[in-house]
Hints:
The structure holds 2 protein chains of 2 kinds.
Chain A: H1 3-6, E1 8-9, H2 20-30, E2 34-40, E3 45-52, H3 53-59, H4 97-107, E4 111-116, E5 119-125, H5 126-137, E6 144-151, H6 156-166, E7 171-177, E8 185-192, H7 198-206, E9 210-214
Antiparallel strand pairs in A: 1-5, 2-3, 4-5, 6-8, 6-9, 7-8
Helix pairs in contact in A: 2-3
Chain B: H1 3-6, E1 8-9, H2 20-30, E2 34-41, E3 44-52, H3 53-59, H4 97-106, E4 111-116, E5 119-125, H5 126-136, E6 144-151, H6 157-166, E7 171-178, E8 185-192, H7 198-206, E9 210-215
Antiparallel strand pairs in B: 1-5, 2-3, 4-5, 6-8, 6-9, 7-8
Amino acid sequence: MFVEKWMTPDPVTLSPDISISAAAVEMGRRKFRHIPVAEATAKGKKLLGIVTKYDIARAFPNNLNPFSVAVTDDTVPQRLSTIMTRNVVTVAPDCAIEQVAKILRTRKFNALPVVRHDCLVGIITESDIFIALIEMTGAGAGGAKIVIEADASINPILLAVQLSHRHQVRIQSLLSFHDHQLKGKELLTLHFATRPPADFVQELRGFGFRILNIV
Amino acid sequence: MFVEKWMTPNPLTVQPEVTVSYLAVQMDRYKFRHFPVVEPTLTGKRLVGIVAKYDIARGFPADLNPFSIEVTEDTLSRPISAIMTKRVITTTRGCPIEEAARIIRSHRIGALPVLRDNRLIGIITETDIFEAFISMTAAKKGGVRILVESNVEENPVPMVLELSRAHQVDILSMMHFHENRLKGKDMSIFRFGKKVPAAFLQELARQGFRIVSVGE
């Protein structure tokens, strides 16, 4: 649930001294959209900056489409250090994953380098957060999922968990959701390894739960 | 929890005859990275394709860099029907948001048009799913986040609910899930409205739940 678990450790980095087109070649080859720029030190890699695919595309001359020409290392000879973003926002490995989601969203970034004791130890991207979300919500894990709406006042989560204990159906994941738009209602997603028995579902209804969806 | 809550309804669209550079200008103006391509019908918009920002760049000739020139609507006369993706992966408004996330991720795309009765009613993008995730975890509301590890047979949720009531701390969000990489363990993340008293945590630990972290 922390960055460290979801990041790409020891990410590929580029030297600030390579040419812009060499960076383009490297990014195209690896299908990356951002690469940290770093230099090696005795303690580890020191982060100097970050470049995105767009930074590189914008640095190409007017008469060269970076997406369609056969780019070679010396097509655009200026050094990468001339276009990289220098004051990079970074996170620590023990930052909560949803906190990173918030930073990426509010600052409109797609990736954040992960730094520990001044050394680059990883990179965390939008894709990693997607994977975290998918795993945390049990999407794609198979099994059965029930989405319930109920009055928050009857404590629907407690009732649902107790009921699943009684029926010995194991909840694989549980997500509760309430916001001001729901006006005293709570939405609950319960994810089970196998389809829960009909009498379990019946009892849920008996509590006054509205079952929105069973997948 | 469903796509309908998070999608952009009635998104901006273009028709297949418009030029690549016209769309480039529109994308730049609205800062959108995806545009559905539609044909109007009496019953609504029929989806015929989708164009992503990178498709536009690839639609430019080799001797024109769309990122460094001033693109105007008539820089290129090529129609977008020549570069759009025609076999579009779509979703419906009743699809759970996490399922939409899974589809986006597994196809490595950035957005899903939302259809109803074969007509376009919305679009859901990576950004919308980010918003949903942030909202689900109440990450913007501050408070205190507690991460708990438990054995699969012992769900900590009832105990935490009970303790939060006894100590009068609001739960802003909770997620409980099976941790594939830690065999036989479950993880739960609780976000509380304010600092949780030490007695709360001690009681939880006494019941055998491992408190992995307490933080913001």
